[in-house]
Design a protein that fits this description.
- The complex is a heterodimer.
- Chain A is an alpha+beta fold.
- Chain A contains 7 helices and 4 strands; from the N terminus they run H-H-H-H-E-H-H-E-H-E-E.
- In chain A, helix 2 runs antiparallel to helix 3.
- The longest helix of chain A has 22 residues.
- Chain A starts with 16 loop residues before the first helix and ends with a strand.
- Helices cover about 45% and strands about 15% of the residues of chain B.
- The radius of gyration of chain B is 21 Å and the shape is globular.
- In chain B, the strands form 2 sheets. A 3-stranded antiparallel beta sheet of chain B has the order 3-5-4. In chain B, strands 1-2 form a two-stranded antiparallel sheet.
- In chain B, strand 1 and strand 2 form a beta hairpin.
- Chain B is α+β, with helices and mostly antiparallel strands.
- The chains are: A alpha+beta, B alpha+beta.
- At the A-B interface, helix 1, helix 4 and helix 6 of A face strand 2, helix 4, helix 5, helix 6 and strand 4 of B.
Chain lengths: ~240, ~180
């Protein structure tokens, strides 16, 4: 390896192949849109070699990138087939690099904002008058209580709404979106609020499946108020 | 509506989260949303003119009293809050989700070039990111998006308040020092 490996400081152990590539491009002071692919590939492999010799484990992503670089290098060595320009094979790496750099820049912009709890503060919210933590008087609901509640709602559906094949149905995903919107607005809703009396059986089933899916995805917490038996959904 | 500004000011003081115009409207059915908006803007202007310790900021689709950043040090001395700093990797992941949402994990990892599962879980735990559902494709991967808490943390009105990709390039230092005359 051409350079003194001991110059590499700890913070230069890169998180991923993209960071390493950007480091090499900066170090060699080359234009990202005109990467000298042979040079960068050689240095990239040297770095992997160095990691190996230092017994530092690196993720498979580093090897994948090495393969990509080698592939691009081989393509640049081949004569172009059509005179009016095959795409520059280096674009395979330039495009993602530019996108990654842009996102890094966006991350820096985010870090520069007035962060809540760091640069700017709001009134602490433990003052009197706020609703107590819901856990204080509720229990977590099991699947069977949910099914019971579901059956009661099915019973309440007007019979003429039970089967109506012509109505447009919404998917579980759409229903999750609607429930998320309602929860975003209110923070919590009761289980029965999810169902309107005019919903037909398929709506009810879709809603119920949506609730189960949301529990599984850890989007919501479902609790039952002990004295009233009301089941409430909380947005997590 | 008489005293509308004072009423809204009192609501802002006790609200637990940024107060949206819709929310105020629901509390005050007799006022119309244009009046409410005007009152909020005039209140915000008063506070900013006063140049005191706090102002009204428009964040996460609502309005909220927030302290002026120049007094952060003394406030931190009093509150001793846990630092909110996110790692560079977490910020990158968050930026990708913010700009490309709705997005699946594979797409995030394609941009970052590294496994992002751990960071995603941390962002979910901190409620900066949420699951929107699953994408209907093989493996039914989870779809991620940012939350209201994300907007609150970064003092953003809404997602459109993020600088556009073009603005990012203009705002920031040039991504690479040698783009102009680098030897290649």
């Amino acid at each position: 390896m051409s350079e003194d490996p001991y110059k590499v400081k700890l913070e230069n152990v890169f998180e991923g192949p993209m960071d390493l590539l950007i480091h090499l491009i900066r170090k060699n002071e080359v234009d990202i849109t005109d990467i000298p692919i042979a040079l960068i590939t050689r240095q990239y492999l040297e770095y992997l070699d160095w990691l190996k010799r230092m017994n530092i484990d690196f993720a498979g992503e580093f090897l994948l990138m090495a393969a990509t670089l080698a592939h691009i290098k081989s393509l640049t060595l081949l004569p172009a087939h059509s005179p009016d320009g095959d795409e520059d094979p280096r674009l395979e790496i330039t495009r993602p690099l530019l996108e990654y750099l842009q996102m890094k820049q966006a991350a820096e912009e985010l870090a520069r904002r007035q962060l809540l709890g760091e640069d700017t503060f709001v009134r602490p919210q433990n003052a009197a008058g706020h609703r107590p933590e819901p856990e204080a008087e509720t229990i977590q609901v099991g699947l069977f209580e949910l099914i019971d509640a579901f059956q009661r709602i099915l019973e309440n559906i007007a019979p003429d709404h039970r089967v109506d094949l012509s109505t447009e149905r919404i998917s579980i995903k759409e229903r999750i979106g609607e429930i998320v919107d309602a929860l975003e607005a209110k923070g919590s809703i009761t289980f029965s609020e999810l169902f309107v009396p005019e919903s037909d059986k398929s709506d009810v089933i879709v809603t119920f499946l949506a609730v189960l899916e949301m529990v599984k995805l850890c989007l919501i917490r479902v609790t039952q108020h002990l004295p009233t038996g009301i089941i409430r959904l909380y947005y997590l | 509506m008489e005293n509308l500004k004072a009423i809204i000011e009192s609501l802002l003081l006790v609200a637990a989260t940024p107060l949206a115009v819709d929310r105020i409207q629901a509390l005050l059915p007799e006022a119309d949303s244009r009046e409410i908006r005007a009152a909020l803007q005039s209140l915000a202007a008063e506070y900013s003119q006063r140049n005191g310790g706090f102002v009204i900021r428009e964040v996460a689709g609502g309005y909220q009293f927030r302290t002026q950043p120049q007094y952060r040090e003394v406030i931190k001395r009093m509150l001793q809050p846990n630092p909110v700093r996110l790692s560079r990797a977490a910020l990158e992941t968050l930026a990708i989700i913010a700009y490309k949402q709705p997005i699946i994990r594979h797409e995030i990892e394609q941009i970052r070039g590294v496994d992002s599962g751990g960071i995603l879980r941390m962002l979910l735990d901190r409620r900066l990111v949420r699951v929107l559902g699953r994408r209907e494709m093989p493996g039914r991967p989870l779809i991620y998006a940012t939350t209201k808490q994300f907007l609150e943390l970064f003092d953003l009105k809404d997602l459109r308040d993020l600088p556009s990709p073009k603005e990012i390039e203009e705002l920031g230092h040039p991504p690479l020092p040698t783009e102009a005359e680098g030897p290649s």
